[in-house]
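User: Structure please.
Assistant: Input sequence and predicted structure:
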Amino acid sequence: MISGISLCILVITLVTSISLGARQLVNETLQQFGPTSIIVFAGGRRQPGQPFQRYTTMTLDDVKSIKDQISGIVAIDPEANSNMNAKYRAQNIDTIVSGATPSFTTAWDWNVAEGRFFTERENASMSRVAVIGTTVAKQLFQGENPLGKLIRIGTTPFTVIGVLTSLGTTPNGIDRDNRIVIPLNTMMKRMLNQTYITMMRIKFAPDTNINVVADEISTILRYNHKLTTSGLPDDFTIITPDKVMEFLNKINSTLNIFLVVSTIVAIIIGSVVVSNIMQASISEREKEIALRRAFGATKSLIVIQVFLEIFVISIIGSIFGATLGALLGIIMEHLTGIHVSISPLLFLVAFSVSTIIALIAGIQPAIKASSYDPAAVLQR
């Protein structure tokens, strides 16, 4: 009986720890996006976390128009991104390569942990220098110091001048540290031979009304792309903190539904298993119960005894289940990278669920035990 309850609690603990971990990750992601930042993607109706697609409508002229006409901009970082293979000696990795400007660190609030970021002069001269994410550093260099080393992105050699701080994964599992940042001009002219950008990240002053400037940016881009007179839909997507919050809330809602359904299923299965086992146990102990009734135990005392037995068994099962579930969650996070959160709340949930199981599962056995006729049972 204890093993059955332990298994139910283990499942609930594991699901709860994943749900809490995802919620924590969502909050961290929102903080990292920044309350006064906007991302503008090339291409219409895009959602956060979607893979890169090739749209050719947004250019550096759009960036200049926004810089000239919108006030309150702290930093603006146009980027051209592409999935590429990077290699160092025998090691290689498929990664996102971002062509960016020196404003990258300010616009994204993403600094270098080692070395330095490239300068405006290196961007203007199309230097082959690279700042790598921690995942790239681990995969390619495996403990070796990457600074000053020569890597190949595609077939082009780059010198590693810095390593970014680690940001971990997004709520939808994308590794943000699997990234290489190189100068924008190098990316557009040497690597991709293109004149359009993939996106731009804009950081505003703290007192900026983000929704107002988002509308102003939309007006500028629609005018530049000649969409206003033709009435065509936007060929760009503006992501504001409100849209990020809406997107993350959808993820949270899905996880909460999964958690509730898992908990209900576990309670039903646990209650049925415990009730059946306890009824079998009551049947085997009918003479013991009848003897207690013959010596004066009331039906109420028998009911209390049955509930106490199930409650104690459920608590023991919940302790084993919660502990095993927490350990399994830690192991799963280590092996798969799925973010989990281990907190005292898990044990509170386990205790609550086991109590509910005990109350539901104890009804039938308690009624059966209290209904025994001592005289009839003892004469058999």
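The radius of gyration is 31 Å.
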